[in-house]
Write a structure and sequence with these properties.
The chain has 176 residues and is α/β, with parallel strands linked by helices. It has a single domain (6-169), classed as Rossmann fold (3-Layer(aba) Sandwich), CATH 3.40.50.2300. It contains 5 helices and 4 strands. A 4-stranded parallel beta sheet has the order 2-1-3-4. It starts with 5 loop residues before the first strand and ends in a 14-residue tail after the last helix.
């Protein structure tokens, strides 16, 4: 029997940076067990060039990445999602569509690197920080024993992951 492949949707407002990074991370780190998708409530229509540069610098595939509306994933013919994560506070506060299959949802808010201004080094550092924070959370997520957790335990674990920060930020929040 083939192992289940989990579909994971990452949502943000613009779908140009954080959600794109997370989509690539879960697909890459999930090694065939997870398939990442991303979308936005108000997509910018383009992927941020620094998000693409960040991914390329870490040898992640960027072919086919695009900024898209979350309505694409709320249709009957869309891939059925197992998990939906918001990666920005703004999208988390918006009224989300009803997702087919009622996936498990959580908020993993990450500071928007696309909002950082300054020289190229400052902006790239913001993207690298967002990447590392998302990488940490995705790694914790894909290591969960998904088949052995009941829905309540799983939601608790996903919420705890969303409160986990990189130690480098000096804002380590202990997971319950």
């Amino acid at each position: 029997m083939a192992e289940k492949i989990y579909n994971v949707l990452f949502l943000c407002t613009g779908n140009s940076a954080r959600s794109i990074l997370a989509e690539c991370l879960v697909t890459h780190l999930g090694q065939g067990r997870f398939r990442g998708f991303s979308a936005g409530s108000h997509p910018t229509g383009r992927v941020n060039p620094l998000a693409l540069e960040t991914l390329r610098s870490k040898d992640y595939a960027v072919d086919g990445l695009r900024s898209k509306d979350w309505a694409e994933f709320a249709t009957p013919d869309a891939p059925r999602m197992d998990f939906v994560f918001t990666v920005c506070d703004r999208a988390a506060a918006e009224v989300c569509p009803v997702w087919p299959g009622q996936p498990i949802a959580a908020n993993w808010g990450v500071t928007d690197p696309a909002a950082v201004t300054g020289d190229e080094a400052t902006c790239m550092a913001a993207f690298d920080t967002a990447f590392r924070e998302l990488e940490n959370r995705v790694s914790l997520f894909i290591d969960l024993p998904l088949k052995s957790l009941d829905p309540t335990e799983l939601r608790h674990e996903l919420d705890a992951i969303g409160k986990t920060w990189l130690a480098a930020t000096n804002t380590q929040v202990p997971t319950p």
